[in-house]
Amino acid sequence: MENRILGIHHITAIAGSAKKNYDFYTRVLGLRLIKKTINFDDPKTYHLYYGNETGSPGTILTFFPWEGIGSGRRGARQLTEIGFSVPAGSLTFWQERLEKNNVIYNKAAEKFGERYLTFLDPDGLKFELTVAKEPDTREPWVTKEISASSAIRGFHHITITTHNIDHTAEILTEVLGYELAERQVNRYRFVTNAVHEAAIVDLVAAPGEMTGHVAGGSVHHVAFRVKDEAALLYFREKVAAKGLHITEKIDRNYFYSLYFREPGGVLFELATDSPGFLVDETLGTLGAKLQLPAKFESKRMELESLLPNLI
Ligand code: ZN
Fold it and tell me: Which helix (H) or strand (E) element contains residue 18?
């Protein structure tokens, strides 16, 4: 049995307009829409999944777009930055592309010996495009405008901002198998050696920071990757042994999940590799049609008329 956390599985955030979200992630950033479905807990809302060609774990960014939702506030007890990995030599391309598309960005900087470029999505969600020290060998999704020499590979890291990192660090190291690798001022870099990519969690200690508010432009949760349902149950016991509340196993159609809130305030999910995104569509048609779980199929016409057009 593979009883390790295999890095990040997916990240789910909140957006305003679904159409703007679709345009930004597929056209400006060049990700593939790999699944168009509904929020199973709020079926009149989309759940949009973006990733590489197959939607490999570690590349999957998903959104709940709620039209007209107000903006959240970035702050403590939140996942405050999402780091994508891009190839060496591509930051100039990205800076020009962000500029041309009126995206708010900062000029490239460096931390932990890696160059990165910061930008905000249309709802204010904060990203970094990082050139990893070791070349990222993952196959990217390419588009007419973004070739393999620049395309996003998947996640590089996440940043969690907390008042006191100790309790989150304890969960990362004692439950999830991460180790403290480096520290730069108040940023502590934790890494798992179980995988090469999407393996980094940065904790930023910000004792005086106002607590953030999760709404538009905020991360809702981050899911860590486990191989299968047996590993999921193994980690359920480990989390519960720390005295944290953790849900029962939930069927999310494309993976099985558990959720718990880590002591630093961020909602963590654990998600399996299987069954994956090819369970209801072929590789060539991923994301083309609205996919509904069986129990919502009888409401397809009503839901399709309520959900906004993406194009
Ligand atoms: Zn999730």
Answer: helix 18-22
pLDDT of residue 1: 63
Q: How many Å lie between the centroid of ligand 1 and the Cα of residue 1? A: 23
Ligand 1: centre distance to CA 93 (Å): 31
Q: How far is the CA of 222 from the centre of ligand 1 (A)?
A: 7
Model's pTM, two decimal places? 0.97
pLDDT at residue 16 is higher than 70: yes
105 CA from centroid of ligand 1 (Å) = 27
* 235-267 residue pLDDT tens: 999 999 999 999 999 999 999 999 999 999 999
Domains of the chain, first to last: 8-306 (3.10.180.10)
Handedness of CA 201, 207, 209, 215 (dihedral sign): positive
Separation in Å, CA 211 to CA 44, 67, 77, 105, 282: 30, 24, 6, 24, 43
Distance 109 CA to ligand 1 centre (A): 31
Query: 8 CA distance to ligand 1 centroid (A)?
Result: 11
d(CA 270, CA 19): 29
